[in-house]
Design brief:
alpha/beta; Muramoyl-pentapeptide Carboxypeptidase, domain 1; 7 helices; binds zinc ion
């Protein structure tokens, strides 16, 4: 997957995005050239018809993308501009592109496949679960992205359920571990024990039980890697341990 750097922070309205959700949009006009908006007006990523991905803003940027704008009604209890990473998918329309309810809006296969790859990468990097991948329409009552609200499989479009199923399908190679700390048990704990043991940091038993020795080892590792030292294996620590 190739992401082209088009980051432009001139108009970013706020910083400190909590990065807990992914919001999927469609560019509500037909066309793709010159549609990337400088960070602040649109989304963090834009995906063209041929599947090329452009990044328009860094993940810490808070962009005006899923707010109510005093017009839409908030539907989701938690997702908002301050915790969403946004993706704009370029779309095509055979009918009236001025109407989001037109039944002929569709995405190319290339755009959808690139979007799956991008979302999987964001889920893995940021520790975002599949149920935190939302349509703009799930956050406020805006008909966006139209092809995944219409769900009529027009031309090459998938339904939203099909899109979500493809995210789940990658679980065997896209590894997501749960957050663990002292007192936790299970295979995630065993994995942390094995990784830190292989690096000579953890000397305790491989017993699937998160005890004091593992806590000390995790903290040592976090200090060594300049991560927040809290003894908890969360997304940042897992990504660091598994990526190295
Ligand atoms: Zn939208």
């Amino acid at each position: 997957m190739n992401i082209i750097n088009a980051v432009d922070h001139r108009y970013v309205p706020a910083w400190g995005n909590k990065k807990q959700y992914v919001a999927i949009h469609y560019l509500g006009v037909v066309g793709q050239n010159n549609r990337i908006q400088p960070g602040g007006y649109g989304a963090h990523y834009y995906i063209y018809w041929d599947g090329t991905i452009y990044q328009a803003a860094g993940h810490d940027a808070v962009l005006w993308q899923v707010g109510s704008a005093g017009y839409y009604t908030q539907k989701h209890p938690k997702a908002n501009n301050y915790n969403c990473i946004g993706i704009e998918m370029c779309a095509k329309c055979d009918g009236n592109a001025g109407d989001a309810a037109d039944p002929t809006w569709y995405f190319t296969t290339e755009t959808q496949e690139a979007c799956i790859q991008l979302v999987k990468r964001l889920m893995s990097e940021l520790g975002i679960a599949a149920d935190h991948v939302l349509r703009h329409y799930d956050i406020v009552n805006k008909r966006c992205p139209a092809p995944y609200v219409n769900n009529n499989r027009y031309r090459t479009s998938w339904t939203w359920d099909e899109f979500k199923a493809k995210l789940e399908g990658g679980k065997d190679y896209m590894f997501t571990c749960r957050q663990i700390g002292v007192g936790d048990q299970g295979n995630d704990v065993l994995l942390a024990e094995e990784i830190l043991s292989a690096r000579g940091i953890y000397k305790g038993a491989l017993d699937k039980s998160f005890g004091g020795q593992l806590d000390t080892a995790v903290r040592f590792y976090q200090r060594d890697q300049k991560l927040a030292e809290d003894g908890i294996c969360g997304p940042a620590t897992w990504n660091s341990m598994i990526a190295l």
